[in-house]
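Figure S7 source data.
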Amino acid sequence: MTRAGSSSQMPELNGAGLRIAIIGARFNDHIVVPLRDGALRGLERLGVADNDITEAWVPGAFELPLAAQALAQTGKVDAIVCLGTVIRGDTPHFDYVCGEAARGIQDAQLNTGIPVMFGVLTVNTEQQAIDRSGPGIDNKGDEAAVGAVEMALLLKKFKG
Ligand code: INI
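Tokens for the predicted INI complex:
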């Protein structure tokens, strides 16, 4: 039997040689910067070289999909980590931004074949965002970075 990510156990991940991009949404940057820091910690822990990491910023989570798709189309990255924070307010704006960010990020990875991680917090309160962007490995930016390395390695394996 050929196994390619077919075990439910988290595989050993070696990110050396992978080119990973992080795109952050500047809106709520007091949360997104710690998510970015978590992503960088995760990539470094898995051996992704600093020189192989690209960082870019967009105004808000709504803009993440276009930037991710454009970057994926360059062929210069093996995976992309999208980071943002959308905090529920008094109007339906939250639902539009979250929905379009999620749909667009999924479209970007399906359209391009480059993994694009959904590291966007969609929370009801600022405290929930703070709780998910701390210094531990439960930081959602760190988790998204680990996912990016896993998916990049899996797709490379598929392509042989
Ligand atoms: N963008 C976010 O990333 N988070 C938010 O909480 C948010 N809220 O609440 O409005 C937000 N809005 C901006 C949006 O992403 C776009 O940048 C803007 O609508 C321009 O297209």
